[in-house]
Design goal:
Layout: H1 2-15, H2 19-23, E1 29-32, H3 34-42, E2 49-52, H4 76-80, E3 86-90, H5 96-104, E4 108-112, H6 118-132, H7 135-150, E5 162-167, E6 175-177, H8 182-189, E7 193-194, E8 202-204, H9 207-213, E9 217-221, H10 222-227, H11 231-234, H12 244-248, E10 251-254, H13 256-260, H14 266-278
């Protein structure tokens, strides 16, 4: 019964669209995930967007579109109310039963994952170009990305600082990034060592873990640093002030989507992180 109701609601919403709009080859899109939405804009396909999720923060125009909620906690009703023909989603989109409901209601659902690799972003860009009818634009964007990637600064020889990434968006809820995370992948690309190597995923920060990690640099997002009240507030976290980075007040930060999003701006993100962590680049 629920499936039938969702299908009827979606069909009714589509029926209300102008005939000319329905006849267009370019599908009406809902984009889930900041990197996916950024790619749609970079391809010039933003005119097809009818909705985004709350992680779609760049460019700023994306924040003015109707929102369907947080990527991981979508509702079928919220998406279907916008009558999309295609849902483009990052790998973290969900929950799975909602994606299944959308498919049952007639929405094409495409899940796109970059696997935290530059080549993965290239593949995702080409795929989004195909799905949006923007193959030529995707080819041009990929060519620019590859050129920027080849020209990115390299870390100085023999320089591999130990970096502790702290996820600090909520006061009193600090977590550190181990292996298999976007932060870990970015540190590797920037020629740094993850101070939490050997730990999988994100773990709560403890004083013991911070002291054992002994980072040369503490890294977080701009948003997280602001949420903690700046470097002074962040260094009040368990054990951080007693680490080599804390004693020297070596705290670095970058915009969250740029640093962790693996967007088409990845060459820019890696270049900026490399310079911030090493102080200079080759």
């Amino acid at each position: 019964m629920r499936r039938l109701m969702l299908q009827r609601r979606h069909c009714l919403a589509l029926a209300l669209l102008p005939a000319a709009a329905r006849a267009q080859a370019a599908p009406r899109l809902v984009s889930i995930g900041g990197a996916v939405t950024e790619t749609v804009y970079a391809l010039g396909a933003q005119g097809q967007l009818v909705g985004v999720d709350t992680t779609s923060l760049f460019p700023a125009d994306a924040t003015r579109l109707p929102q369907v909620g947080y990527a991981r906690t979508l509702s079928a009703e919220g998406v279907l109310a916008l009558a999309p023909q295609l849902l483009l989603a990052s790998g973290e989109a969900g929950p799975p039963h909602v994606l299944a409901q959308l498919k049952q209601a007639g929405v094409r659902v495409e899940v796109l994952d970059d696997q935290h690799r530059f080549d993965g972003i290239v593949e995702r860009t080409r795929r989004i170009g195909q799905l949006c009818g923007r193959e030529r634009e995707a080819q041009q964007l990929v060519a620019r990305m590859q050129q920027d990637w080849a020209a990115r600064p390299r870390p100085p020889a023999g320089s591999a600082p130990r970096v502790l990434f702290v996820l600090a968006h909520a006061a009193g809820q600090l977590r550190v990034a181990g292996e298999g995370t976007a932060a870990d992948a970015m540190l590797q690309l920037a020629g740094a060592r993850n101070a939490m190597a050997g730990v999988q995923g994100y773990k709560p920060l403890t004083a013991e873990a911070a002291l054992q990690a002994a980072p040369d640099v503490i890294l977080c997002t701009d948003q997280g640093l602001a949420a903690q009240g700046g470097a002074d507030g962040l260094l009040k976290g368990p054990g951080l002030a007693l680490t080599p980075a804390g004693r020297a007040r070596r705290v670095a930060s970058m915009d969250a989507l740029l640093l962790l999003g693996f967007t088409p701006r990845l060459p820019q993100a890696v270049a900026e992180l490399t310079i911030r962590l090493h102080g200079r680049a080759a």
